[in-house]
Predict the 3D structure of the following.
Amino acid sequence: MKKEPLFVAFSTQKGGVGKTTFTVLAASYLYYLKGYNVAVVDCDFPQYSIQKMRKRDLELIESDETYHRLAFEQFSKIGKKAYPIICASPDGAIDVANDFLDEDRNEYDVVFFDLPGTVNSQGVLDSLARMDYIFTPIISDRLVLESGLSFAVSMNELLITNPEINLKGLYLFWNMVDGREKTDLYTVYEQTINEFGLPLLKTFIPDTKRYRKELSGEGKPVFRSTMFPVNKKMVCGSNLEELLIEITRIIKL
Ligand SMILES: Nc1ncnc2c1ncn2[C@@H]1O[C@H](COP(=O)(O)OP(=O)(O)O)[C@@H](O)[C@H]1O
Ligand SMILES: [Mg+2]
């Protein structure tokens, strides 16, 4: 019998809050740096932005000498290829993932799903219901936050009313926090989050340009990539490592 991997999604209804970014950062960190076996199912039709990022990453590694050398060193050291990125429709995501897991000879620890934000589609809801854990990025914009909370509340209700659901937990976390500390506004918002009984991660993620940094073609250090883990020097102050340690504990990886 093969080991059953955990299904994890960074998910919410709104676009532009960090779903894809954290999917890639978490996958690359756990796979390249921590030695876990990871697969990514990109179900964000029709953008397929993770699949596209992989394509860009590969082209840059081919054309840039520094990246080429770094990639060679890394893959020789870890003795495995880049993690698989599988494209699927949101409705078919679970079947596609299970077929892949059955056929692939490797065992996986975790599969990340990047699902689209349209939760009012039954297909997306069905796929979300099959996750073991959902992490929902929220930002301190009233509308985005309301939408994030309503998403979390409806997922939690689904969890209570549907005994077949796999979901073991849904956690919110602050993303794109301005400045070094959270302001009083956050305290007010957090009271509301508490009233809804929704768990919130301790770690918050600041708004910093690093989160937009990809391979650049000049051999510069890279934050977000499907081929490398986050750069060691850039990770300091990003709170990314803190977030991923907190998440790893919760999902008991
Ligand atoms: N903490 C952050 N600081 C700065 N930019 C961020 C942060 N998190 C995400 N971003 C940027 O916000 C944009 C939207 O993120 P993305 O992951 O594509 O969102 P989604 O998948 O939810 O639509 C991207 O350009 C990403 O680089
Ligand atoms: Mg996205």
User: Anything to note?
Assistant: The chain has one domain: 6-250.
